[in-house]
Design goal:
286 residues; alpha/beta; UDP-N-acetylmuramoyl-L-alanine:D-glutamate ligase; 4-stranded mixed beta sheet; 35% helix
Length: 286
């Protein structure tokens, strides 16, 4: 399949403690630098699963941005239509994880994504060509998300990203004329922030260790999480989204949930935000 992902690409600094985190103190642990960004992670996962993927993004205008762009090339994600933000513009995410791999908190510095404007997107869409689906996420401005809703010429999947950015989905639907999203992926908190809003075909609500709720036509279907030895939860939600998309726009709830939860498990058992052995591990679990 062929997909176009529109969203953020950044460097992830992941700090994980050896012991339970102690607030207001220095905690021994490990600090790792990996390529990240919700849009980039989804694109990387889809490429690992054997798809052709175009990423429309603005990379930071610093060494982190060069590092992230290089990671996309190595992952065989097409970034020929992406650009670099002005020199000095940042695109970085810092995550602090407890010793069990669960994120305690994070800081997102995604200034470069502000440059993904409707005008910028319009020039890129003319060159994308046929795709099976578009994927967007809320690191981009509200007006840009509304523009994508109106101009996506294939089913549109949207990732809510975080509680701080989830409200953009409601606002974008209000601004758009088409007012329709094929599918939305969010967590429980993000879902509550978005609230009841018309125009979302199917909602995949991640409950972490408690599994996944899928809402369609006001009917909720629950799926349990797969047994998992968690190493790092950063990126598992992006893998869940990639698995849902991998199932295809016409997939049943059951098929999309099955593939999504399997990809999330494989990623959570890896120290990186993307498990480079995703396809191999997926086939082993099949």
């Amino acid at each position: 399949m062929r997909f176009c992902v529109i969203g953020g690409a950044n460097a992830d600094i992941i700090a994980t403690t050896f012991n339970p985190f102690v607030h207001n103190d220095s905690n021994p642990g490990t600090i790792r630098l990996v390529a990240g960004g919700v849009g980039r992670n989804i694109a990387h996962n889809l490429a690992l699963l054997g798809n052709e993927v175009i990423l429309l993004s603005l990379f930071g205008g610093d060494t982190f941005g060069w590092f992230t762009a290089d990671s996309c090339r190595k992952a065989k994600v097409d970034i020929s239509l992406s650009d670099a933000a002005p020199v000095g513009t940042r695109s970085c995410f810092l995550s602090i994880n407890n010793c069990d791999g669960e994120m305690i908190g994070g800081v997102s510095d995604m200034v470069s994504a502000d440059g993904i404007t409707p005008e910028w997107i319009a020039t890129k869409l003319q060159k994308v060509g046929p795709v099976d689906a578009f994927i967007a996420e809320t690191n981009i401005p509200v007006e840009s998300l509304a523009f994508i809703i109106d101009h996506a010429y294939a089913p549109l999947f949207v990732d809510a990203v975080s509680g701080a950015k989830a409200a953009k989905i409601r606002l974008a639907l209000e601004l758009s004329s088409k007012k329709h999203i094929h599918a939305l992926k969010c967590n429980k908190m993000e879902n509550e922030i978005i609230g009841e809003v018309e125009g979302i075909g199917r909602r995949y609500v991640s409950l972490g260790a408690n599994g996944l709720d899928v809402i369609e036509n006001k009917v909720v279907t629950h799926f349990d999480a797969l047994p998992c030895e968690v190493v790092n939860t950063n990126g598992s939600g992006d893998a869940l989204m990639a698995g849902i998309i991998q199932a295809g726009p016409q997939a049943s709830i059951e098929e999309a949930a099955r593939i999504g939860l399997r990809c999330a498990k494989i990623t959570a058992e890896c120290p990186d935000t993307v498990n480079k052995q995703l396809k191999q591990r997926y086939e082993e679990l099949s």
